[in-house]
């Protein structure tokens, strides 16, 4: 059976037109003629639209064909140009080699001499560029670095720059100078001066405080000429900073001690690896925090009890000078206990006074056992932290071996820090317990002495009255 493609296409077009007409016209046709008329109108519109699309497609195809032909012509021209440049490059390279050979022959033995001069200029140029003196005198190494990269014979003036730069560097090594410079990462609200001690150490003085700085290439930057002064992240301890300020404030000709880093800043960088107090405490782990918590609570309680005992001792001393008893101190309460039984015999009075003293003793000794217990527990907790830290260390050795000591540093640090914290906690607690116990015993002895005196006076009065 022969299939007529044109008929199928027409049917598709008619079906599409009917569907479009059905969607476009909401009102139904009133008769067959009206429906046929709508169908013919839709077919004509669809045919015109298809013809327009076909025309646009052909126009776009022709334009794309033209652009493709133009691009191929451009590519061919660029390829010819590249071949020409490659030939020219090869010819220039051959000419350069010929001229280099002629230059080598013309230089003779001087070529090796000037080669050594360029090498020396490059080495000293890099040394001078990284020298701390370049922070005060920037650009000193430019001439030497330019000479090291030169491919022509150096002049006499360029050769003189080598020994002049070396001589200047030797002079700067023995020079101490203060100059206006810029130090990155420096917290200073006002003006500051930069002090250079030879080529070994530099620091900025601001508001009577010295901040050490380093002359180096900042992190993330590569290449010559990018050196700058930047404050050290971890500053040296107070004595070194105080010595730096003293050197800055010294009068001309005055001999003072000042900081010198013979490694040109490498020793100062070691302070970055030294943990501060907070980091030390964190190394102690959970046991270290428990020890510090115990220390804080015990010291606060111990100071409170010591203050109360001092005030009680002062009140008892004041009561000894007064005959009128007061309930505000322990001696006054003992005297009031005597007043309540002073008409009885000596045995009753003595028992009553002993009872009053025994009633005051717990108040005086309150908290002393806790301080003694805390002073004994703190070293034990430190020993516990030592054991747990060594367990961590041996566990890491079992897993990772002993190749890298850093893997064992955490456990060893915990072991040592907890021991130190335990001892540091026990020492002040022992002092507090000793002082508090001393005041407590002093007040108790005073009460016993006064009670014995009261009994003796009462007996004398009874004996005198009987006679």
UniProtKB/TrEMBL annotation:
Q: Tell me the leader sequence span.
A: 1-24
Task: Locate the coiled-coil region(s) and give their ranges.
Answer: 68-109
Taken from the record, one Pfam family name reads MotA_ExbB
Q: What domain of life does the UniProt record list for this protein's source?
A: Bacteria
Q: Where is the MotA/TolQ/ExbB proton channel domain?
A: 340-448
PANTHER family, per the entry: MOTA_TOLQ_EXBB PROTON CHANNEL DOMAIN-CONTAINING PROTEIN, PROTEIN TOLQ
Q: What is this protein called?
A: MotA/TolQ/ExbB proton channel family protein
Lipid bilayer topology:
Multi-pass membrane protein
- Organism annotation: Hyphobacterium lacteum
What keywords appear on the UniProt entry?
Cell membrane, Coiled coil, Membrane, Protein transport, Signal, Transmembrane, Transmembrane helix, Transport
Per the annotation, which location comes first and is thus the protein's main one?
membrane
Q: Mind telling me which InterPro entries this protein's record contains?
A: ExbB/TolQ_transport (IPR050790), MotA/TolQ/ExbB-rel (IPR017270), MotA_ExbB_proton_chnl (IPR002898)
Compartments, record wording: Cell membrane; Membrane
| Transmembrane portions of the chain | 286-311, 370-391, 411-432
The similarity annotation says: Belongs to the exbB/tolQ family.
